[in-house]
Amino acid sequence: MNFLKNYSCLLLTLLPLLTTAQVIFEDNFDGEQLNMNSWSYEEGDGCPNLCGWGNNERQVYNRDYVKVEDGNLVITASKKGDQYFSGKINSKEKVEFKYGIIEVRAKLATGEGLWPAVWMLGADISEVGWPASGEIDILEYVGREPHTVFTSLHTPASHGETINTKKTFISDIETGYHIYKTEWTEKYIKFFVDNELVYTFIPEVYDENYYPYNKDFYLLINMAVGGNFGGPKVDDAVFPAKFYIDYIKVSKL
Fold first, then answer.
1. In what residue span(s) does the GH16 domain sit (predicted)?
2. Which is the catalytic residue, given 57, 103, 140, 183?
């Protein structure tokens, strides 16, 4: 009996350690400023190479619109005069990984013209460009389509208005925080919202044209304004608008 009791105690002691060991990256945004060991700012309007960031977006990204407050990453979109401003960060060359479960707890910014997103790009994008790099859109929301979450993949075989996408109607998605999760393996990618499976992607062919996902990727978090996907109309009454990210965590499968 003592042996069983001691063994049970040992398991209870080791279990949290084993669980923690599976996490390869986690940011709970508990400090007073962005952790620059994990993140970098993206700034400007994308010019001269990608004016409008390749999507005719209206905002200029500026680090002043990225804050860490009350245990959240807060990205604010605002308008000053005739110009829109917002924030964008990425983990390129700082946090890169291949495969895993990516989990994000976030509260959306809402209003026509807003486009908050959490997504990933292939770490080789500087060498091969887009869409050869591949793109995984963990969460996209556009205010012009209320109560709807977009989960998408962009590949050389299908990108831009990709066929590898799912629109999911969730009536209360604008209310409070929700958990967005992506399970990424060498054979498939699955998307979940509040632990409900919403989309499974299995490619037609396992090659770089149809599945450019067998390599390292990095994370991006931003909120665009307008653009090809955000829509031509922007409701200026929604500004300033805030996109809250409570945490982001990457775990091994």
1. 10-253
2. 140
